[in-house]
């Protein structure tokens, strides 16, 4: 593991209001794996079994039904961290202790209940994260949902509790709910707004989906046009989301999204890197592929981010 590079020191300086424990764990995330010291991230998230169901998540690559598989994939690929719900981490954390930083996802939802205003249930605790030796907690908010206030208030308490024990918080900021159209969930103005909300609620790292060239809010559209905010390319849109996250002074990483071809995914990664995104968090697009193919894909993603670090 390298010492603190200039880039790592610069990023940590943006968190000057945080305690030593939080900054140390942020440094652990940045100093682990193939991208250590670059200030870039590739994280393996595997909450899809809970969120989408086991068959939809793991049947394309049956070894992925086993929690051990994901730990080993994250380790062998050189990911900065592995993120998962409580059950998946408890099932294998002892076997892989100390080999990859872990992020405990503290809330989850499922697709069995069809509700208009989504809200995730709190399914784990900060105490669970410290017991397992995690370096951070994760939490999902749904800006645009009528239930957003409950999520925001719960997140603020969890951020405070985690900070007290030296853990940073990674916020999955996923707009959805009755306040948004379906295209609006990935609209550039809405994704940027959601990233801003996450930062204001105390997120140390923000995870969002790659924004599309669509502006949902009529009021925002006027400003985008008046101020000439570019949105034509993914790099343009990523740049706006990063700027909306305290002018780039919060770590913003972008999901791989739905399963797609390798070249389509790598094109998205190039756009994220060119726009100043801090990295990628790639789940289904990695673990649904055969292991060797997944390892090559993750290595290619890391190479793209490394070249612009």
Shape field? globular
- Main sheet summary: 8 strands, parallel, barrel
- Tell me the series of helices and strands, N- to C-terminal: HHEHHHEHEEEHEHEHEHHEHEHH
The secondary-structure class comes to alpha/beta
Fraction of helical residues:
40-55%
Strand order of the largest sheet: 1-2-3-6-7-8-9-10
Instruction: Count structural domains.
Output: 1
Mean pLDDT over the full residue set: 96
Tell me the β content.
5-15%
* Low-pLDDT regions: none
Q: State the helix count.
A: 14
Per CATH, the class reads Alpha Beta
| Number of DSSP-assigned strands | 10
CATH architecture tag:
Alpha-Beta Barrel
Let me know the CATH homologous superfamily. Aldolase class I
Radius of gyration: 18 Å
Write the layout of secondary structure elements.
Layout lengths: L5 H8 L6 H11 L10 E5 L2 H5 L1 H5 L8 H11 L3 E4 L1 H7 L9 E4 L1 E2 L12 E2 L3 H7 L3 E6 L6 H17 L4 E5 L14 H13 L4 E4 L9 H10 L6 H10 L7 E5 L6 H13 L4 E3 L2 H4 L3 H17 L2
Parallel strand pairs: 1-2, 1-10, 2-3, 3-6, 6-7, 7-8, 8-9, 9-10
Antiparallel strand pairs: 4-5
